[in-house]
Design brief:
By secondary structure, the chain is of the alpha+beta class. It has twelve helices and 18 strands. Strands 1-11-12-13-16-10-9-4 form an eight-stranded mixed β-sheet. Helix 3 (27-63) packs antiparallel against helix 4 (67-103), helix 5 (141-147) packs across helix 12 and helix 7 packs across helix 12 (397-407). The protein is elongated. The protein starts with a helix and ends with a strand.
């Protein structure tokens, strides 16, 4: 959410920065709404002042037994009361109009974010490692998993439809092992607090992290009382970012609580409304998947450094698993709605002969904090400031499973277990048909 005062003070700069995202100027329309709102507020204040003065004069008139004047003043107060009620309704309506308009505008990118219209404008930052040498033609993960009889898309489709999977046996255990390893790394080495958050959240929670209202079609809504006519609505979280970030909504933290770092392993649910025809086979783009999420709540002065730290923590998982990857700085046209700057980590998949996203780490500034009313009180200050929020995948568990299958595949179709995961797999060296 944007601060209308900042827009009002420098509309040209606001429009110029939005233009980097390919968005037409917005400030004139926003300022026009704000001017109407401010006029209503001024008129309300004047009427309230008149009502208060008239109310005081009623008592004085009655004290002087001037009933005619008292009645005239009471009639005036009654009229003002009706006008004030109408003014308050106008203020609520215009406030809602302004909030709706502001809520639909994405965050302002940092000045160092590359300008571009789509993923072709992204800039590679660095690479780690190199592709593994294979003396055979590598297979894609779904061919490997189905050949092991441990990955079943057909049965999943009978249960739930397309974009679901059933993992069995050692692949199901490998998925659990990956998540346990990630959580242990992030909590034990990187200092994140593990949280087990709700998977179902309310409208205002989704609004706080900006999934609503603009991206409602990408989410799964749940109406638990629909059969009996109840209209209560919940949302399945698309990422634990939603639950974790909103833990500080409508709160005032002390400065010594920051930075606040949290991690969670949860299922995630996405409708993938805009991805028809993309990655229709395999585990790359599912409606339900698992992810270890990282969230940081910081002061404004800490957030840039925290972004680099979060990226390093996500990279640490891939380094420990000895997987080749690259880091990309997303351009303005490929960046998420809430982000001011985003790094994507793309892991090498030899079966696809391509890099694919496995993590996205974003700094959002105070954009989400304004929507959540999340603040902190600086040491020695009587005033509060909005916190800054950051989020990142640490990592997507399903895509990490995919990366291990494709990078650790053997010529006979078996899958070697990365050294970092062996203790989580009971010492197993490989997954095979034998």
């Amino acid at each position: 959410m944007h601060d209308i005062k900042i827009i009002r003070d420098d509309p040209a700069t606001f429009d110029k920065r939005l233009a980097k995202r390919g968005i037409a100027p917005q400030s004139a329309r926003l300022i026009e709404i704000d001017e109407r709102r401010r006029k209503v507020i001024v008129a309300l204040e004047e009427m309230q002042k008149k009502r208060n003065e008239a109310s005081k004069q009623i008592g004085a008139a009655k004290g002087k037994k001037d009933e005619a004047l008292a009645q005239k003043l009471m009639d005036e107060v009654a009229h003002l009361k009706g006008a004030i009620q109408q003014g308050e309704e106008d203020e609520r309506r215009i406030n809602a109009e302004l909030e709706t308009e502001l809520a639909a505008i994405p965050n302002i990118p940092f000045d160092d974010v590359p300008v571009g219209t789509d993923e072709t404008g992204n800039v590679e930052r660095h690479r780690h490692g190199a592709p593994r040498a294979m003396n055979f033609a590598p297979k894609e993960h779904f061919d490997l998993g189905e050949a092991l009889d441990l990955m079943d898309f057909e049965t999943a489709a009978k249960l739930s439809g397309a974009r679901f999977v059933v993992l069995k046996g050692q692949l199901a255990r490998l998925e659990r092992a990956i998540a346990s390893f990630m959580l242990d790394l992030h909590t034990g080495e990187f200092g994140y607090e593990e949280v087990s958050p709700p998977l179902l959240v309310k409208d205002q929670t989704m609004f706080g992290t900006a999934q609503l209202p603009k991206f409602a079609d990408d989410q799964f809504a749940v109406f638990p009382g629909q059969a009996r006519g109840d209209q209560d609505r919940y949302w399945l979280i698309p990422t634990a970012e939603v639950s974790l970030t909103n833990l500080v909504r409508e709160s005032i933290l002390s400065e010594d609580e920051l930075p606040k770092r949290m991690t969670a392993y949860t299922p995630c649910f996405r409708a993938e409304a805009g991805s028809a025809g993309r990655d229709t086979r395999g585990m790359i783009r599912l409606h339900q998947f698992s992810k270890v999420e990282l969230v940081s709540i910081t002061t404004p002065e800490q957030s840039t450094e925290e972004h680099e730290r979060m990226l390093a923590c996500a990279e640490g998982v891939l380094k420990a698993l000895d997987l080749h990857y690259r880091v990309i700085t997303l351009c303005t046209g490929d960046m998420g709605f809430s982000a001011r700057k985003t790094y994507d980590i793309e892991v090498w998949l030899p079966g696809q002969n391509a890099f694919r996203e496995i993590s996205s780490c974003s700094v959002c500034g105070d954009f989400q904090a304004r929507r959540m009313q999340a603040r902190y009180k600086p040491d020695g200050s009587k005033n509060t400031r909005f916190v800054h929020t950051l989020n990142g995948s640490g990592l997507a568990v399903g895509r990490t499973l995919v990366a291990i299958l494709e990078n650790y595949q053997q010529a006979d179709g078996s899958i070697a277990i990365p050294d970092a995961l062996k203790k989580y797999m009971g010492g197993l060296d490989a997954i095979s048909n034998g």
